[in-house]
Design goal:
Blueprint: H1 9-23, H2 30-41, H3 47-62, H4 71-85, H5 103-109, H6 114-128, E1 132-137, E2 140-145, E3 152-155, E4 161-163, H7 165-176, H8 190-206, H9 212-224, H10 231-242, H11 246-260, H12 265-280
Antiparallel strand pairs: 1-2, 2-3, 3-4
Family: Belongs to the UPF0162 family.
InterPro entries: SirB1_N
Pfam family, one: TPR_9
């Protein structure tokens, strides 16, 4: 299957407006944000497709046992339904697909990256009434059930395998080469989850220069989040120049230089020089 391509400009603009509004709402909806992101990525995902994905999450939640018990019982119930019965899981090859970062594609294929599979677990469990949250371990996203004192972790990428403390330590050591710190086990904010999804999208595009369109919308959506790294403005400027939009890229470079100047004038001047070079390419 070919990598998805974005929708027409008018549709894309409307989706971005809705994405920004949802991200700035009092209680941002993780599934809504991920599906809007998916629609920006994939022009074939229309309103009916977005609604169908939400309905599927509702139906999956309805297939769970009614209040199965404590945190471990919830984790086991999700593993049994999503991992074992329905086959949601991941593999190394899924890192090569843009669709592995798109919720509607993960629901369709039942395959994806750890963070998108975790979104499925989170949204199904939340609808069923579980105390559930994402846990952004370094290099590997998992799902947590219960409070800190009784926390149980599950790994959706591994079919929902319930993790012991030693398992979590090995995951972190293997992915990041650092010891597990209790601070790593804190619940992840939904907007941080979305930003991490977009980071994965940008990383996928960075390895494929011919898909600078994907890198650009990945940056654009990241900039619509209430909190984001300032350096994304610089990344956006570089992408515009790379795509031959020299004046727009130069303007972004100048704007970023103004942000940086109060704390690092030398870097700001270097960025201004890059803006001049970009404008000179029009001659």
């Amino acid at each position: 299957m070919r990598s998805p391509f974005p929708p027409p400009p008018e549709r894309s603009a409307e989706l971005r407006r809705r994405f920004a509004a949802e991200a700035r709402s009092e209680l941002p909806d993780l599934s809504a944000l991920c599906l809007l992101l998916g629609a920006v990525a994939d022009g074939t995902l229309d309103e009916a497709g977005i609604d169908a994905a939400q309905v599927e999450l509702d139906e999956l939640a309805g297939r769970l046992p009614f209040r199965p018990g404590g945190p471990r019982a919830w984790a086991v119930a999700l593993r049994d339904l999503l991992g074992e019965e329905l086959g949601f899981h991941g593999s190394p090859g899924d890192y090569q697909r843009l669709g592995s970062s798109l919720l509607h594609e993960v629901l369709r294929r039942r395959r994806g990256l750890p963070i998108l599979l975790s979104v499925v677990w989170l949204e199904v469990a939340r609808r069923a009434g579980a105390h559930v949250y994402g846990v952004a371990l370094p290099g590997h996203f998992v799902v947590g059930f219960g409070t800190a004192g009784e926390q149980v972790l599950a790994d959706p990428f591994d079919g929902g395998r319930v993790l012991t403390g030693a398992d979590a330590e090995l995951l972190v050591a293997g992915a990041a080469g650092v010891p597990l710190d209790p601070g790593m086990l804190r619940p992840a904010d939904p907007l941080d989850v979305v930003l991490r999804v977009l980071n994965n999208v940008r990383a996928w595009a960075a390895a494929r220069p011919e898909r600078s369109d994907v890198a650009l919308w990945g940056v654009d959506l990241s900039l619509l989040l209430p909190s984001h790294p300032a350096r994304l403005r610089y990344e956006r400027a570089q992408l515009l120049v790379q795509r031959g939009e020299f004046l727009a890229g130069a303007a972004e470079l100048d704007a970023y230089a103004e942000v940086v100047a109060p704390v690092d004038e030398a870097t700001a001047e270097q960025v201004r020089r890059q803006a001049r070079v970009a404008r000179a390419k029009l001659n």
